[in-house]
TrEMBL record, chain A:
InterPro entries: AAA+_ATPase, ABC_ATPase_HisP-typ, ABC_transporter-like_ATP-bd, ABC_transporter-like_CS, MetN_ABC_transporter-like, P-loop_NTPase. Signal peptide: none annotated. Keywords: ATP-binding, Nucleotide-binding, Transport. It comes from the Bacteria. Belongs to the ABC transporter superfamily. CDD domains: ABC_HisP_GlnQ. Residues 19-263 form the ABC transporter domain. The keyword Nucleotide-binding applies. SMART domains: AAA. It holds the Pfam family ABC_tran. One of its GO terms (molecular function) is ATP binding. This is Polar amino acid transport system ATP-binding protein.
From TrEMBL, chain B:
It comes from Cellulomonas iranensis. Residues 1-42 are annotated as: Disordered. This is Polar amino acid transport system permease protein. Keywords: Amino-acid transport, Cell membrane, Membrane, Transmembrane, Transmembrane helix, Transport. PANTHER family: L-CYSTINE TRANSPORT SYSTEM PERMEASE PROTEIN TCYL, MEMBRANE COMPONENT OF AMINO ACID ABC TRANSPORTER. The chain crosses the membrane at residues 63-83, 103-128, 140-160, 264-282, 288-313.
Length: 267, 381
């Protein structure tokens, strides 16, 4: 797979993709889900977020993509504020159109895949580069087939999502996110909805993507993946970052009691 | 049953007492025989079963019910034939009468234009209702409220009298200069008054149908479309509406059929649609029942056509929800004929016929091992 020289994916290596979160707060009603999260993701780095359910992991990802608006603090990708434009001393909320344009640089892979069921795999991949970036259809389609081949689904390009297994669907979803050539890719528990024997094929594709220099932010329970691929492991609990550092430190020699307690339950 | 027992016993530490084959406790009968066959003597069992004829189960209750319904049906048909007050000759004469055909065509035109107006405006109203602007939401709500509340008959008469309220219509800048003038009577004739009445009230109902369809699409689809940065219009037209259509189509076709028959109300405007034409004819010649039958037959034919279209439209929008689409009636008919042909001539079922149909060529004979049956073309390939 690494021998594949997909133009689409290789160009991602030039992309930057620095993500900064500063003192991010987010509440749903009175429930505070994020309570002051600050993180910096270096360009091309792989960050795995661990934490018990309800700790705010998914919200953290959705905030980076502006699927959720932050209540306090800011999120910036490559120095550009997500959801706002700075004019001197004022911050202007972006219109939906501008937010959509920003999102094309931030790919999102959902736990439940969310492929468009009425479109074929290749149509799913082609849709956004054509409709959101206005690229020529023929060029995008050739690239889409290359991307599908790269995730091992060349022969499934014309199948509809319902005709694919969960692991295959998730690999199409990753190809769909990659087609926009994002500098940042967010994964929200990408393997949690999969049968155990299908998890490996998705993780393999993610490892392949990690080597291309795209910044990855991954919420997962796959400790093995974190240990092998992550540059940084972050433990989130009740909306705050409890501990962060290289996997060797956080996973093998955790400094905090809560990290230790969580790892004991997971491992 | 017996096989389960056998498996359980194999796990027992103490072997169960050996059973004599003739022992009634071992369970005589076909069940026990089958269990024996499976545990090592497959070939002989298959030899015994191969080629046996299968006799379908009998359902005496169903036969009685079928006979009763058949008698009732025969009574209806015979009364239709023998009672000459139906005057089938007159029905046949007027069914293709030029003015009746013209009336049917007018009904089709009214239905088509009113449905297009109704669903186009209804979709806009539904999107307004789901918009984030409170004014758009309220206007859409109020529109539905008003147009669903006033009877269609009243609406038609009101639109027909538009010229009384506004003798002239003009195009121009709101509250500013006007550029184009029309005489209301020349623009809103009977046809357009009917379209306004039917279309605008239809829009109120369609709005709710389209809104229900949009709400039925999974939230994850909205999020996925947004996260890919698709422009808003594209999200609606390419991702949301095609999936909403699966919910929208059945109810929408209901509405179109209602509209088709609803056009008969337009006779109050003396517009020459099917029912008005028919009523004019029976007013003149007094053949009321046969002419009502003529109209009924036409409405039946038109509704049938709509239903056929519905089938194919629904099938089209099912492609995201089903792994494989069900065969169309045409495909089913073709396969049935091909299979019947194969049974009759003893030849192979042609390739392309799905296995579920191909199997029917061998109905009547147990073919579990398929040794006695010649392989079909598909199997050989």
């Amino acid at each position: 797979m690494s021998a594949a020289t997909s133009a689409a994916v290789d160009r991602l290596a030039d992309a930057t993709g620095r993500v900064e979160l500063h003192d991010v707060h987010k509440a749903y009603g009175t429930l505070e889900v994020l309570r002051g999260v600050s993180l910096t993701l270096e360009p091309g780095s792989v960050t795995v977020v661990l934490g018990p359910s309800g700790s705010g992991k998914s919200t953290l990802l959705r905030v980076v993509n502006h699927l959720e608006k932050v209540d306090r603090g800011f999120v910036a990708v490559d120095g550009e504020l997500v959801g706002y434009r700075r004019r001197g001393r004022t911050l202007r909320e972006l219109t939906e159109r501008d937010v959509l344009r920003q999102r094309t640089r931030i790919g999102f892979v959902f736990q439940s895949f969310n492929l468009f069921p009425h479109l074929t795999a290749v149509e799913n991949v082609v849709e956004a580069p054509v409709a959101a970036q206005g690229r020529p259809r023929a060029e995008v389609e050739a690239e889409a087939r290359e991307l599908l081949a790269r995730v091992g689904l060349a022969d499934k390009a014309d199948a509809r999502p319902r005709q694919l297994s969960g692991g295959q669907q998730q690999r199409v979803a990753i190809a769909r996110a990659l087609a926009l050539r994002p500098s940042v890719l967010l994964f929200d528990e990408p393997t949690s909805a999969l049968d155990p024997e299908l998890v490996g094929e998705v993780l393999d594709v993610m490892k392949d993507v990690a080597r291309t220099g795209t910044t990855l932010l991954v919420v997962t329970h796959e400790i093995g993946f974190a240990r092998e691929v992550a540059d940084t492991v972050v433990l989130l609990d009740r909306g705050v970052v409890v501990e962060q550092g290289p996997p060797s430190q956080v996973l093998d020699a955790p400094r905090h009691e809560r990290t230790r307690a969580f790892l004991q339950k997971v491992l | 049953m017996s096989t389960h027992l056998a498996q359980d016993e194999s796990r027992l530490l103490v072997p169960p007492p050996a059973r004599h084959p003739a022992d009634p406790a071992a369970g005589a009968g076909p069940d026990a025989g089958a269990a024996d066959g499976r545990s090592g003597r497959d070939d002989r069992l298959d030899d015994r079963l191969e080629g046996l004829r299968i006799v379908p189960a009998r359902h005496p209750g169903r036969w009685v019910a079928t006979a009763a319904v058949a008698v009732l049906l025969a009574m209806v048909v015979s009364s239709l034939v023998t009672n000459d007050r139906w005057e089938w000759g007159v029905v046949a004469q007027y069914l293709t009468w030029p003015s009746v055909v013209e009336g049917a065509w007018a009904t089709v035109r009214l239905t088509a234009v009113a449905a297009v107006v109704g669903f186009a405006l209804g979709t806009v109203l539904a999107l307004m209702r789901l918009s984030r602007s409170p004014l758009l939401r309220s206007v859409s709500w109020a529109y539905t409220w008003v147009f669903r509340s006033v009877p269609l008959l009243l609406q038609l008469l009101l639109w027909y009298n538009l010229a009384y309220l506004y003798p002239h219509l003009s195009l121009g800048v709101p509250f500013g200069p006007e550029y184009l003038w029309f005489d209301t009577l020349s623009v809103v004739d009977k046809f357009w008054a009917a379209i306004l009445g039917l279309g605008l009230s239809q829009a109120a109902y369609s709005a709710e149908i389209v809104r229900a369809g949009i709400l039925s699409v999974d939230q994850g689809q909205h999020e996925a479309a947004a996260s890919l940065g698709l422009p808003r219009r594209r999200q609606v037209s390419r991702i949301i509406l095609p999936q909403a259509m699966r919910t929208i189509v059945p109810t929408a076709v209901n509405e179109v059929i209602g509209l088709l028959k609803g056009t008969s109300i337009v006779y109050v405007l003396a517009y020459g649609e099917l029912f008005y034409i028919v009523s004019v004819i029976y007013g003149r010649n007094g053949r009321v029942v046969p002419l009502l039958l003529v109209a009924s037959i036409w409405y039946l034919v038109l509704t049938t056509l709509i239903t056929v279209v519905q089938y194919y439209v629904e099938r089209h929008y099912a492609k995201g929800a089903l792994r494989t689409l069900p065969p169309t009636p045409l495909q089913r008919a073709r396969w049935t004929v091909q299979v019947a042909g194969a049974r009759f001539t003893g030849r192979d079922v042609p390739p392309g016929v799905p296995p579920a149909y191909a199997a029917r060529a061998r109905v009547g004979v147990l073919t579990r091992t398929s040794r006695t049956v010649a392989p079909t073309a598909g199997e050989r390939a």
